[in-house]
Amino acid sequence: MTPRITLPEPDAMNEAQRALRDRIMASGTGSMVGPQRANIHSPELAEAWWQLGDMLRLRTVLPKALLELAIIVVGRRWNSQLEFHFHGAAAIKAGIDPAVVEAIRIGAPPPLPDGEAREVYEYARQIQVNGAPDDATHAAITARWGERGVVELTAMIGFYTMVCIALNAHRIPLPDGIEPPFPADPGFSAMAPAE
Question: pLDDT, tens digit, for every residue of 100-128?
Fold first, then answer.
């Protein structure tokens, strides 16, 4: 896949871009492989994007595994090759069953038992498919993590929707030698409910 815009390397960046890149690389983020490669054309946007992303990834009340689960639901819905590639692996590393990640990748119902992972999957799925969760699903997330948790999970889903749109719009490529997780132009995933 060929990017639609230039993705500047450090030696082609201006001073503001390079300074921001250096701060991002030295932070908990530690890389610029996703939309920040494009966002760097607008350092002010890239700075705000980075700050919000770091807060959502590193300082929420929800466990990392469940955040990664929500992120791959978003990545699959938007068929974001790069997003699903990185966060599918991160979900498994964080403790999500590889069978769940594979089911989401192929659009099958993921084998999730009742409990927090199923609730997060349904919350993310319903937002991606319907634009909002139903009352019972919203209440389940709120009961488990409070109002702070439901606000942070919703923001995470929205943030990664924005990430996927940017990756797709600018055609940010996968790293060299990586096979795309989805077929070319698969259309939106129907996002099956959990089994």
Answer: 999 999 989 999 988 999 999 999 999 99
Is the per-residue pLDDT at 187 higher than 70?
Answer: no
Contacts of 166 (CB under 8 A, 6+ apart): 34, 35, 38, 39, 172
Q: What average pLDDT does the segment 183-187 reach?
A: 65
Range of the domain at 108: 64-170
Residue 130 and residue 50: Cα distance in Å, rounded? Answer: 28
Q: What is the pTM of this model?
A: 0.91
Which residues, including other chains, have CB under 8 Å from residue 165's CB and lie 6 or more apart? 78
Q: Does any domain span residue 176? A: no
Q: Following DSSP, what letter does each residue of 155-192 receive, concatenated?
A: HHHHHHHHHHHHHHHHTPPPPTTPPPSS-SS------P
Question: Could you give the CA distance from residue 74 to residue 76 in angstroms, rounded to a whole number?
Answer: 5
**CA 88 to chain centroid:** 9
| Secondary structure letter of residue 31 according to DSSP | -
Euclidean distance between the first and final Cα of the chain, in Å?
34
SS3 at position 83: helix
Identify the three-state secondary structure at position 195. coil
135 and 77 inside one domain:
yes
